[in-house]
Amino acid sequence: xxxxxxxxxxxxxxxxxxxxxxxxxxxxxxxxxxxxxxxxxxxxxxxxxxxxxxxxxxxxxxxxxxxxxxxxxxxxxxxxxxxxxxxxxxxxxxxxxxxxxxxxxxxxxxxxxxxxxxxxxxxxxxxxxxxxxxxxxxxxxxxxxxxxxxxxxxxxxxxxxxxxxx
Length: 166
Hints:
3 helices; Alpha-D-Glucose-1,6-Bisphosphate, Chain A, domain 4; globular; 7 strands; seven-stranded antiparallel β-sheet
């Protein structure tokens, strides 16, 4: 299948906690279920095996439907770097690759998040159709992660998430 294009989304966030705490929030199922593609109230499954070759899975129940996100860990180097794949099989067999890098600051830490997004295109798509789709995927992902990172920041800095949107 060669009808594939990629776009890369990069986001930076600063957290007022040690990098270890942020790293843990990506890997600890109790933390994951509060912010990672799900919220505690709608989460049905949050499980993982955080080592290279290990897998993770989240199942979120929204609007009467289950949404399942799964992936595999490619690199686990606490507390500096985490690389894993991400896919939602009910929508696509394509797998994105996500890299999370953490850098200690004099106060807290900085997280650099990179997502390599794969977009399949139809036979008859033009260059501009492809560009448009890549832009929509990029912006849609950025919007989703931005909301999640707001929840993550609140969770890490206050211990709770009050965010209730989707």
